[in-house]
Amino acid sequence: MAIINEADVAAVVARVVEEVQVTDIHTHLYPPGFGDMCLYGLDELLTYHYLVAEFFRHTSMDYHAFFQLPKERQAELVYQTLFIERSPLSEAQQGIVTVLKELGLTVDAGKELPALKEQIKAIPLTEYVDKVFAAAGVKEVVMTNDPLDGTERRWWEKVGNKDPRFKAALRLDPLLNDYEMYFGELNNMGYRVGRYLDNVTLGEIRRYLKEWAKKLAAVYMAVSLPPDFKVPEDSTRAHILEGCVIPVCRELKIPLALMIGVKRRVNPHLDLAGDSLGKADIRSIEYLCRVYPENKFLVTMLSRENQHELAVTARKFRNLMVFGCWWFLNNPEIVREITAMRLDLLGLSFIPQHSDARVLEQLIYKWKHFRRIIAGHLTTRYRELLTKGWPVTEKDIEKDVKELLGNNFWNFVGGR
Ligand code: RAT
Ligand code: ZN
Asked: Which of 26, 27, 28 to mutate to test the pocket of ligand 1 (most atoms within 8 A of CB)?
């Protein structure tokens, strides 16, 4: 295949990045077969907790009064405040505008919300899901699945997932972070666990993990953790992690995803929008990767201050795969900075982004915005190679981009 000219690099990279079909390794989406759990449409988009937090910056409205309103009314208030009364400049606001554009919706001069909703409603759901996946350039998404949530569990028991584009991940937050509150739910599900972690209880927790990872066909297990997360430690969380989660992941040969640095409910009145972040201690990741070389760890951290040491730690441990610019880091300037640093330190051996989409159409803007950034960085790097006389072909670029946005994940998980 022909070697690319320096003058053509930007266009070739842009095309390859545009065309690649992404594996989105962490979302909160559900397949259309899961009824109300599958969120889509403008009411859901406008009440995304990222936007709700921004709405409250501009209003003195009582928190409780807002959350009591029907979703449609909440969406109208957010739209009026963040899109009509002022220009939508933030990343989450820009995201809505990108979605409208990419779906080909017509925004009339009055920017009328009902008219926009009508245009979406006109498309049948199954067709709509296909349209969104196509517009986002996404091949498949990994969900966040929690059998300890009764509503979700019933979907798995009664219906199951029939859409192969949606892969499961067994989420462990209640088990690891709130065991005291949830061991009763495990009893309800037939697991003979107690409040204290004796051998019977640990064995039953392992049985729960094994059975549900298999039932879901989970591609990995995952947990979000606070900034003060520490292992080893004499705590319920650390004992369940080392005594149950790690051995079961090893036995099933699936990675454990650690999402570290979230401070839950800093402002509980804000509900999901009330979480914040803090810097975590990298030594716990070093410990896990060193002591459990047969286990695989997918890790993302929420604090900007942790990013450099996390990338350096991945240079030390091949069982550590860094992924994503998570949540408050998913803003263009920060994504640009983190992605450049990871390319410098790790070459192609990381997973640069995930969407964290909760509402279907968010796939469109999260990936559209990220593609622009990764294309910029890759263009600069290939241009440098050509300047130095290193030949680069279109095939080389295609292979690299596929590695970053899909193959790195599947190879780490264990191939398919
Ligand atoms: O990004 C988000 O929507 C957060 O609320 C969290 O869901 C976070 O991504 C998580 O998975 O805990
Ligand atoms: Zn998430």
From this structure: 28
**pLDDT tens across 76-92, in order?**
999 999 999 999 999 99
Q: Does residue 288 have a pLDDT over 60?
A: yes
- Pocket mutation for ligand 1, best pick of 24, 224, 354 (most atoms within 8 Å of C-beta): 224
Q: Measuring CA to CA, how many Å separate 168 from each of 28, 164, 219, 265, 295?
A: 10, 10, 6, 26, 19
- pLDDT tens column, 247-281: 999 999 999 999 999 999 999 999 999 999 999 99
Name the E strands within 186-242. 218-225
Taking the C-alpha atoms of residue 162 and residue 31, their distance in angstroms, rounded to an integer, is 8
Summarised one tens digit per residue, pLDDT across range 48-59 is: 999 999 999 999
Q: In which element (H, E) is residue 45 found?
A: helix 42-46
Q: Is 328 exposed, middle or buried (0-12, 13-18, 19+ CB in 10 A)?
A: middle
Please report where in the chains the tokens 């559900």 appear, as a residue: 30
CA distance 67 to 271: 9
- 248 near 210, Cβ under 8 Å? yes
Backbone φ and ψ of 191, nearest 5° = -100, 125
Instruction: Note whether 24 and 360 are within 8 A (CB).
Output: no
Count the alpha carbons within 13 Å of 204 in the hemisphere toward its beta carbon. 20
Q: Where are the domains of the chain?
A: 146-151+160-296
Which atom of ligand 1 approaches the CA of 224 most closely? 12
Q: Residue count of the chain, please give it.
A: 416
Residues with CB under 6 A from ligand 1: 28, 144, 224, 259, 272, 327, 356, 358
Helices (DSSP H) in 264-306: which residue ranges? 283-291
- The closest alpha carbon to 366, from 401, 330, 334, belongs to 330
Count of other CB atoms within 10 angstroms of residue 73: 13
What amino acid occupies position 246?
I
Best CA proximity match to 221, nearest among 210, 205, 231: 210
Domain 146-151+160-296, CATH number (from 3.40.50.1820, 3.20.20.140, 3.10.50.30, 3.40.50.300): 3.20.20.140
| Percentage with pLDDT > 90 across the chain | 97
